[in-house]
Amino acid sequence: MRIFCLEDFKVEFEKLKKKNSYSSIEGDIIKYFFEKEIAQVMSGTRLNNSDDIPYIKKRLNGSGGLRIYFLFVIKDEKIYLMFVHPKTGSLGYENITDKSKALLYKRVLESIKTNNFYEIAVDKNILVFQKQ
Length: 132
Fold this sequence. Notes:
Layout: E1 2-5, H1 7-17, H2 25-34, H3 38-41, E2 45-46, E3 55-60, E4 66-73, E5 78-86, H4 98-114, E6 118-123, E7 126-131
Parallel strand pairs: 1-5
Antiparallel strand pairs: 1-6, 2-3, 3-4, 4-5, 6-7
C-alpha cells in the first residue's frame, strides 16, 4: 500500500507536530496507516457511497483526538491523506463543514489528475514527504 497526501495535510501536520500537546501525531499516523492491513485502514465514517474509492473520516485516539480525512483508491492500494485536525487543545476545533469536506474531495481528485501531491514514507519513525 502506498500513501500520499495533499499540501493541506502536510501543512496542518507540520503545524501540529511543533506543538507539545500534539507530540504523538507522527506516531499515531505511522501506527494507523503504516502498520495495518488494508481492511483495518478502511474503518471510519464513509463520506461517500463508493465501494471502490471510499472517502473516509477517521478518528484517531477517540472522540477528543485527531480527525483525518482520506481517500482510498482500493484497486491501486493507494491512500491520499487530505486533511488532519485535532478536536481538543490549543489548535483543536469541531469537525469541518460539509462544504470543506466537498472542497477537499475536489482538491484530491484534481491533485490525482495533475500528480500534485506528496508520497509519504517512514524513515526511523519519522514521516518523510517527497513531492511527486
